Amino acid sequence: MVPGGLVDPFLPALSKQTALTPIVAAQEGGAACMADGYARASGRIGAALCIGGPGLLNTVTAMATAKTDGSSILLISGEAPTHLEGLGSFQDASSQTLDDVGILKTLTRFSSSVNNHKNLHHIVRHAMIHLLTQPRAPVHLSIPRNIQEATIEAQYQTTGKNLTHPAVLSLSDAEATLVLFNQKINGTPPVKIVALAGAGIEHAECCEDLRRLAEKWSIPVATTLRAKGVFPEDHPLSLGVFGYAGTHHSRMAILDQPPDLLLVLGSGLNQRDTMNWTLKLNPKNTISVNLDTLALGTHLKGACVVGDTGSYLKWLEGKQDAIRASLESTRSKREAWIAGITAQPRLQNPENCTSRAYPLHPARIISELRKALPRDGIVLIDSGAHRAFAGHYWGSYSPLTYISATNLGPMGWAIPAAIGVQCAKPGKKVAVITGDGCMHMEGIEIATAARYGLPVIYVVINNAALGNVWLRAHVEGALPDQLTSLPDQDWAGFSRALGGEGITVRKADELAPAFAKALQTQGPTVIDVKADKRFPTPVEDWSKACAEWSYQE
Question: I need a labelling partner for 384 at 20 to 30 A (CA). Which of 7, 73, 187, 464 fits?
């Protein structure tokens, strides 16, 4: 939250209860990002409180990010008293002026003003159902000052999971997919079967269902970058990430040697999920499961299953007898096919992970952090060149341990979001991989982590540039180079000034001691790692795909 006049009545109210612990952010956008991080890590909801008008407008990017990634934020904003709306009262952003509710309508699933205290009970219930219904999305309530001060009597009840997660599945669509498991290709049932897991696996909480399916029939699994971690990346059947910053293994299994059957589970089939749309989906050998009918209808004309991915996987498990003969007869050939792929290099330039370059190589920084952070530690990835390095070189072993705002990609989001994650998971080690450009945007929230003694580790890959933009722009001339370069700031000193710890790292051998020290620190630690901006990002496969084909063609 960020206090302000339009939400003053909340302050004494918060002191009268113990269920909620208020966290005061430096800025409203940071507060909304914290709520987003809390929601993602906990699997529940995150709540943010601010004034309307300027406060609410500061949350716009965070709310849009939550909508594009399917995250459950309840944003409550204060508003001018209803009887003063449109009369020129200070910070009035009601429907008579700026219309806070209207501004948030396109960025949320539900945005409403509570203009009568007698409506509050059922409007809150509407908001909660919208908030928790799959796929999840943020909601907004504008509460005028006089409504905040009203006295009401209401019996609140838990919103049942049957309402918010009804496990929807079109049985006729599902039944039609059995034909694809049994169809003969050159006289043989499908041998090369691959699953591409998207965020829908995380939303449906069905990671174990996916793992059982993969292990029972030896089906390799690739994930989208958004879903990284829903399938353990050290599992023998893991192909790693497909798409932007993806692995060679996933590219070989999905593009180089097109599978006989591709299971697309909960992916929106956007540009990055599909390797710049080079994944041309054929209804004769593709099964795509999604609650989002728009995603299905836009990119695939047949073999679409409208439904929850968890429901489909459970249904398919109950239909084993219908597919057993086909999958058993091709298992040995499938295992040989997978072995041929995994015997080849998985990563682009794996030697980067042990590079002794000075300034440091981002891959070395990320690899050393992976060694230091516990297996069940949680890492948040910000937006920039470091996203590609982390997506490619970081190993993620369980769901909700690799968290990133991948669809909208706002710079600096991970810095406050990690505070919400640490609040949701106080017993876990939480780290952030961010950049100096991101620190310019949201770095002030280090003060919030310090204020509450939250032991988040912030690894700033400081390359004195807007990394990805600089890689494109510097070849265009001196001015583009200048415009995308940044001064080499002392981010460790910045953290100390805000009450946190700060460590500067210039050599590869200093990484491990710095991480070890940060892991033992009670509050936040910023590790300012001086990196070289000239290293290209590991997107070789992506770049080739972009050069070969575009959606417009």
Answer: 73
Tokens 């200093």, residue located: 510
* Res 160: pLDDT: 80
Out of 48-52, 250-254, 296-300, 435-439, pick the least confident: 296-300
Sheet containing strand 304-306, edge to edge, reads 238-241, 221-223, 193-197, 261-265, 286-290, 304-306
pLDDT band at 231 (very low <50, low <70, confident <90, very high): very high
Among residues 3, 18, 37, 32, which one has the least CA distance to residue 403? 37
* Interatomic CA distance for residues 380 and 434, integer angstroms: 8
Task: Kindly give the residue spans of alpha helices, DSSP state H, lying in 255-361.
Answer: 293-299, 309-317, 320-329, 331-342
Cβ–Cβ under 8 Å, residues 537 and 389: yes
AA letter at 154: A
Contact partners, residue 30, CB within 8 Å, separation at least 6: 415, 416, 419, 442, 444, 445, 448
Instruction: Give the other-Cβ count within 10 Å of 151's Cβ.
Output: 5
- 540-551 tens-digit pLDDT: 999 998 888 766
- Look up residue 62 and give its amino acid: A
Q: How far apart are alpha carbons 340 and 344 in whole angstroms?
A: 7
Q: DSSP state, 534?
A: T
Q: What is the distance in angstroms between the CA of the first residue and the CA of the last residue of the chain? A: 47
pTM: 0.96
Confidence class for position 198, pLDDT limits 50, 70, 90: very high
**How far apart, in whole angstroms, are the C-alpha atoms of residue 441 and residue 436?**
9
Instruction: Report d(CA 291, CA 164) in Å as an integer.
Output: 13
Q: How far apart are CA 237 and CA 221, in angstroms?
A: 6
Which tokens hold the place of 402?
Answer: 């690799």
195: left (phi over 0), alpha (psi -120 to 50) or beta: beta
Contact 472, 540 (CB under 8 A): no
- What's at 514, amino acid-wise? A
Strand 430-435: give its sheet, edge to edge.
402-404, 378-381, 430-435, 457-462, 525-530, 501-505
- Span 319-368, pLDDT tens digits: 999 999 999 999 999 999 999 999 999 999 999 999 999 999 999 999 99
Element (H, E) at 141: strand 139-144
Q: In the predicted model, what is the mean pLDDT of the chain?
A: 95
Report the C-alpha gap between 447 and 284 in whole angstroms: 55
CA dihedral sign, ordered 369, 373, 376, 378 = negative
Q: How many residues does the chain have?
A: 553
**What DSSP string describes 261-291?**
EEEEES----TTTTTTTT----TTTEEEEES
Specify which residues 528 forms β-bridges with. Answer: 460, 504
Contact 47, 85 (CB under 8 A): no
CA angle 122, 160, 50 (to 5 degrees): 50
Q: Residue 550's pLDDT is what? A: 64
- Cα diameter, the chain: 78
Distances (CA, A) of 32 to 4, 27, 144, 283: 15, 9, 20, 40
Measured CA to CA, the distance from residue 369 to residue 366 in angstroms comes to 5
